[in-house]
Amino acid sequence: MTKKLTLLLLGVLITACAYSQSLRNHIFFKDDWSSIMGRPKTMKTVSVSYRTNGEVGNKVELMQFDERSLPVYKSSLNDNGTVSKIEYFKYDTLKRLLLERYILDKNTDKPTRRVLFYYTYQDGKYPVKYQELNRDSVVVSETHTTMNAMGLPEESFLFEPVGVFVGSEKAIYFLDQNKVALSVLDNEGSITFTDTAFFSLSPNVRVNSPNLRYNERGDLIWSQRQAKSGTVLNEYDYIYDEKNNFIKKSMFKVTTKPNGKKRRELTQVVERTITYW
User: Got the DSSP string for 85-96?
Assistant: First the structure.
């Protein structure tokens, strides 16, 4: 019931570094489909963004799952309904581990430069090597990740191009507090960024925080993002279906009026239509 979605949503609290596949992505090794409960068959995701200049941006994605509820492909649509690109997935169906992703451009004026992605595992569920290849099947980026004694991602090293060390990331886990601390280091070993995120080995943990609210089923229904000063920057509302999967997420920009009252401005709405086997 709560849950895996909590990690997925709270992952946005970590600022993404320049890495295409960062340690954060290894720890929260999730995509839009991996936290879905039940046996999804199809999923349509519509994202509407309301920009400050008054423009409205739309993004539509269609995903198809096999009978094991593993993703087969994801189609991205243009505004006119035509397919702009298709992303195909290859899985180890027994271990349910993602092995490859391949992007095929269809009707787009912005060709994808990195189109093939490989994931390599040893014993655990987290990849120890991740590679990105261009259209000529040349590896242009490679990330190596080491695990700690519990099999959790501990340190990642990025090489881009291959053989040229760019930097690293380190993770320290505080499991008794349901947290992980992350550090980003440059190629000389100097820390350039640090942050913390919620993390738990149990999928049923409710994080005790004033920034989070749950319903009686344990679903995260509201969260907020704060600056280090404590100022609230964004708020998020969530609505779920009968399978405990979110079907609507609304994001608001929060400002405070001179009289102290809070003002919420809608900036994005994500709606998902999920069918099940």
Answer: EEEEEEEETTTT
User: In sequence order, what are the residues at sequence separation of 6 or more whose Cβ sits closer than 8 angstroms to the Cβ of residue 14?
Assistant: 24, 182, 195, 197
pTM for the structure as a whole: 0.82
- Residue linked to tokens 């397919």: 83
Displacement of CA 251 from its chain's centroid (Å): 16
Q: What is the pLDDT of residues 232-272, one digit of tens each?
A: 899 999 999 999 999 999 999 999 888 888 899 999 999 99
The model's pLDDT over 57-68, given as tens digits with 9 standing for 90+, comes to 999 999 999 999
- Look up the CATH number of the domain holding residue 166: 2.40.160
8 Å CB contact between 256 and 265: no
How many domains does the structure of the chain reveal?
1
Task: Tell which residue, 11, 10, 71, 19, has the closest CA to residue 45.
Answer: 71
> What's the gap between Cα 260 and its chain centre?
34
* E-only strand ranges, 14-138: 40-50, 56-65, 71-77, 83-92, 97-105, 114-120, 129-134
